[in-house]
Predict the 3D structure of the following.
Amino acid sequence: MQWKIHGERPVYENHWVNLWVTDIETPDGNRFDHHVVRLRNLAVAAVVNERHEVLMMWRHRFITDTWAWELPMGLVENDETPAEAAAREVLEETGWRPGPVKPLIYAEPANGITDSQHHLFRADGATYEGPPTEKNESDRIEWIPLANIRTMIDRREIVSSGSLVGLLYILMDEAIRCPEAGSARPGS
């Protein structure tokens, strides 16, 4: 069931996004051009404090013209590891220096059309360093109780895949650590 690649070529390339056409053949013998969006790797950080709150940013995304809460995230630069990028993004976007970042989960959010890789990390605790140096990322920065996350997701206040994957994994970890906390759901 593996698709064969007979060749590929770039259609458009820049620092942010690259569009390629790939000549593929499906297992049933059909052959056609498939468009592929090639993106740089993304690093996402879920910073959780001792009060079981997660550091989040309220921001506007112009492409979808929506406001939502997101975890700090950004592109991995050529000279850094995904973990270094995650820590850098937290500091630049929030003004908080995270504790040591540890791998949380790896995801490929739309691997039928893009090669985008999302590296998600968890940091327990952070130290406030001052205002964010990146001024164009968020309207507000807040510590949100983990107990509120499920309801916020249900109300579509959290919609970015990087944030959703990280937060759902954090909630799953919390439920495993404290099963009694995971059993109390609104409306149950």
Observations:
- DSSP finds four helices and twelve strands in the chain.
- Residues 182-188 have pLDDT under 50 and may be disordered.
